[in-house]
Amino acid sequence: MQESEKTTSNPEPMQNGEAMSPDAQDSRGPPGDEKNQGAVPSAPPLPQEPSPCPRPKLVFHAQLAHGSPTGRIHGFTNVRELYAKIAEVFDVSASEILFCTLNSHKVDMQKLLGGQIGLEDFIFAHVRGETKEVEVIKTEDALGLTITDNGAGYAFIKRIKEGSTIDRIKTVCVGDHIEAINDQSIVGCRHYEVAKMLKEQPRGTPFTLRLVEPKKAFDRQKYCKLRNYPSEFEDKAIKKVDDLLESYMGIRDLELATTIVEAGRNKKNPDDFAEALDSVLGDFGFPDVFLFDVWGAMGGDVKNRRI
User: Fold this and answer.
1) C-beta of residue 152 within 8 angstroms of C-beta of residue 168
2) How many helices (H) and strands (E) in the chain?
3) Distance between CA 1 and CA 256 in Å, rounded?
4) What residue spans carry the Pro residues bias annotation (predicted)?
5) What is residue 255's three-state secondary structure?
């Protein structure tokens, strides 16, 4: 250490009347020993600082919102890096990810990923689904849209005001990514830039929006048609399956539970049920133990349409 070398080579003289430390008194040696008179000991080496403990690696669990096995995500410090990590784990392109929600696979803007993620939060990544174009005619200054962006170049619809111009166009939905206005790409624009462009569209003149909706796990109209056997058994089975979804996957979703129950109708054994479920919801990668528990939870009355 430089400090120790300096003390040894250039000892500071003691001032008159200054008491010496016990170590300094011992170092003078016995009386008459001229060689040891006035010698100043070297300072003991300073203890080495302990090497800093490595910071614990924060690991988060994630799924694709339309269905996938659970992945482990770590080593990101911003949204773009998070999307890159998700893309790497699930073998998709980072440009396919529209936005993420926490603890819900639904397009729920109350669960939208913000600036912070808790250790217990489960990340659901919503990826590109179908593209659609709609024609809009402004009948008033405001379209009734609230726009936000994902921090990585994609602006999307966060809210739609009831009774507004956009609300009357039923194909436009919350969560839709606004990809272009009048064929002009707005990818890379911040939400306030997109809002300004929409505000500047003249009243009474049609313009087009090219939208990309988040990919859906299944046809939502299909589950609505599930009313072919007594609701008493159906509702019990759906509730049991919903409980199992929470137990195995940490989510609750009556729509998804209904689709699972429907897949089990008229199936004679767990293998047939697993094959049917895989054809509808194969992207979820349900574990075998979950499938067997669901098969048992649905009961014979539901599986065979008995009252």
Assistant:
1) no
2) 9, 9
3) 67
4) 42-55
5) helix
Nearest to 147 by CA among 99, 82, 83, 104: 99
Final residue belonging to a domain, choices 72, 98, 127: 127
Q: Which residue has the tokens 């203890």?
A: 47
Cα 146 to Cα 115, 126, 155: the distances in Å are: 19, 19, 10
**pTM of the prediction?**
0.57
Q: Kindly state the DSSP code that residue 222 receives in the 8-state scheme.
A: H
Comparing CA positions, the residue from 51, 45, 58 lying closest to residue 2 is 45
Domain that holds residue 171: 129-214
Q: What is the distance, to the nearest Å, from the Cα of residue 121 to the centroid of all Cα atoms in its chain?
A: 8
Higher per-residue pLDDT: 115 or 210: 210
The full DSSP string for 10-73 is SPPPPPTTPPPPHHHHHTT-STT-TTTTT--PPPPPPPPPPPPPPPPPPEEEEEETT----EEE
Of 99, 127, 155, the last residue of a domain is 127
Q: Tens digit of pLDDT for each residue in 144-174?
A: 889 998 888 899 999 999 889 999 998 999 9
Range with lowest mean pLDDT among 64-68, 73-77, 113-117, 178-182? 113-117
Inform me whether the pLDDT recorded for 287 exceeds 70: yes
SS3 label, residue 229: coil
21, 41 Cβ separation under 8 angstroms: no
Q: Is residue 14 part of a domain?
A: no
147 and 81 fall within a common domain:
no
Closest among 64, 79, 98 to 212, alpha carbons compared:
98
| Torsion angles phi and psi, residue 58, rounded to 5 | -85, 125
Give the DSSP letter of residue 112.
B
Rounded Cα–Cα distance for residues 239 and 264 (Å): 15
Same domain for 137 and 209, yes or no, is: yes
